[in-house]
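Ticket 4471: requesting a sanity check on a complex prediction with adenosine-5'-triphosphate. Repro inputs:
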Amino acid sequence: MDSICIKARAKINLSLDVLGKREDGYHDVRMIMQSIGLHDKVFLEAIDERCIKVTCDKHWVPTDCDNIAYKAAAVLMDKFDIPKGISIRIVKKIPVAAGLAGGSADAAAVLKGMNDIFSLNLKEDDLMQLGKSIGADIPFCIKGGTMLAEGIGEVLTEIEPLRNVNIVLVKPRISVSTAWVYKNLEIGKISSRPDTELLINLIEKKDIQNLGKNMVNVLEAVTINRHRVISEIKEKLVSLGALGSMMSGSGPTVFGVFGNRVTAEKACKNINRDNTWECILTETFCEER
Ligand code: ATP
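Returned C-alpha cells:
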C-alpha cells in the first residue's frame, strides 16, 4: 500500500478541570474528551524523494515545519530511518485554533497512516507515546471515542462510548490562544469545577439531559472575561433548545448538546442565517471496537 486517506476527527470537551501547574510549565488536567463526526481528510502518499510535502486547501494553515502534521511525519522519518518521503494533503473542515484539536487530529492521522504505509508495525500505545512528545492532545486523537484524560491529557481511561448525540458547534470569528488562557487562569480562584464522577455516571446511563446540565469547563470563565460573545452564544444555544452548552477546550468554539436532530438542525439554520458566527451540525462519534 502506497497511499491512504484517513479521517482526522475533531474533539469536544464534555468537562475540563485544571488541577494544578507542573514544574515543566504544563498543567495537570482532568477532562472528559469526546470525538465528533466533524473531520479533516488527510491523504498520505509515499514518494521517492526523501522529504515531507504538506498541502492544505485552507491558505491560513501553515504547510511548512510549523504544521503539526509535518512534525509528526518528521518524528517517524527520523526515528525509523524511513528511506522514502511522504506527501500529506489536508482537506480542512475543522475550524482552526478553535478548541477542537484540529491540528492534533491531523498529526494523529499522519502517525497512524505512516505506520501502515511504511509497515512500521507500531502498536497503538507506541503511536500514543510518540504522539505525546509532539502534543498533549495527540494520544487522545489516536485513540478517539469517549475518554477520561488525565496527566497533561495523555493518560487515557476509556469510559462508556457516547454515540450519536446531536452537537451544534458555534465558532465566533475571534481567535483565542491556548497559552493566553492558561496564563490567565488563577487556579486558586476557580469557583466552579466539574463533578467528573457524576458526568461519567451520566454518560454510562446515557442521561443526555443531565449531562448537558452538568458540563463544566474551568477555562470558560477566563475566555468569557475577555470575550463576552462566548456567553452570548451559550445563551443563544439554550434558547434554541440545547439541553446544555459549553465552551470546548480553551475556546472559542461553544457547543450545544441537543436531545433531538430536528431541533439541532433548526438551531443551526437559525444561527447560520445571521452569518455572524460559523455554525456546524455534527454528532458524538465512537468507533466500534
Ligand atoms: P487544541 O484544541 O488542541 O488546543 P485547537 O483546535 O485550538 O487545538 P488547532 O486547530 O490545532 O487549534 O490550531 C492551533 C494552531 O496550530 C493554529 O494557529 C495553526 O496555525 C497551527 N497549526 C499547525 N498545524 C495545523 C494543522 N494541521 N491544522 C490546523 N492548524 C494547525
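Notes from triage: The chain has a mean pLDDT of 96. Leaving this open until the requester confirms.
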